[in-house]
Specification:
With 164 residues, this protein is α+β, with helices and mostly antiparallel strands. The protein is built from five helices and four strands, in the order αααβαββαβ.
Length: 164
């Protein structure tokens, strides 16, 4: 199995988010608390049958509103180097961001306003691999310059911000 097989890439968010009713938001909050929570337990919490919750969760998955994944600690898996790369670009920012998003090791890519046009979160096994990824980013047509911010210690990583 290749490295890319077995991982399902996060969908690119280029479309308008669907309108969510209060029940869908409560289901999302249940999944954010525990992505392995059973449909029956979610149904009990939100007042729906197990089958109705299963249907709604499937719709949320298909539309890209939610992903249910196992979040890991990269350090525990041998990825000792993490960084945020600020990228300054010329030309079409979306094309540059999409090309970078396809590079192995670039785990989070966002087009921004401010000092950088694109921010890229990188997870690498070591400094040598980080240098390779950085070279790949710099080789993308439209990349003018990069600035690297190495992570020294993770203090917080949260995904349960709710649905407000």
């Amino acid at each position: 199995m290749t490295e890319q097989e077995g991982k399902s890439p996060a969908p690119r968010r280029n479309h308008a988010a669907p309108v969510l009713d209060e029940t869908a938001k409560r289901i999302i909050e249940q999944l954010q608390e525990d992505g392995r929570r059973s449909y029956a337990a979610i149904g009990k919490a939100v007042g729906l049958s197990e089958a109705a919750v299963r249907q709604r969760v499937q719709r949320l998955l298909e539309t890209g509103v939610v992903q249910v994944v196992g979040v890991t600690d990269p350090m525990m898996l041998g990825f000792s180097r993490q960084a945020m790369i600020g990228v300054r670009c010329d030309g079409d920012l979306t094309a540059v961001a999409d090309t970078i998003a396809d590079l192995d090791g670039c785990e989070y890519v966002v087009v921004t306003a401010g000092s950088f046009d694109v921010l890229v979160e990188v997870v690498a096994e070591n400094d040598e691999r980080l240098l390779q990824i950085l070279g790949s980013i710099r080789a993308v047509q439209g990349v003018r310059s990069t600035e690297s911010f190495l992570y020294l210690k993770l203090r917080k990583q949260a995904y349960a911000w709710g649905t407000r």
